[in-house]
Amino acid sequence: MINWEERNRAKIPGSYKEWLRFSGKCRIAGNTATFWGPNEFHSEYVPEGLVIIGEINGDGEVVCFLKNEGVFVRVFEGKTTEINDFACVLKEIIKLMDDKLILSQERYLEILQKIKEKKGREKNK
Fold this sequence. Notes:
Strand order of the largest sheet: 1-2-3-4-5-6
Protein name: SMI1/KNR4 family protein
Distance between the termini: 65 Å
Order of helices and strands: HHEEEEEEHH
Oligomer: single chain
């Protein structure tokens, strides 16, 4: 992290540094969110001064921080939304997860099997 900061003349916000120490690069609940380490940060397609650290929803929405201010920003379809702290970013992701039906592949296959069994019983009646 220190090397990245020196090379890019920017400061990674403290709350994101804590997150990286805890999790490193990670994916949360499938495509709900993905966050990267410093070697994968980039600034393509976002306003000047922003550094992209991850994606939300896998639909082009990104999470960034302002290079010199430590403020987090969500960017989607050209619209930016400021977020004070990485904990707030995580709260937003938890809210998204609550809004979605998230099933493990195992659970999905289990439900699919039960549906097939029920259709088989109905067909045999």
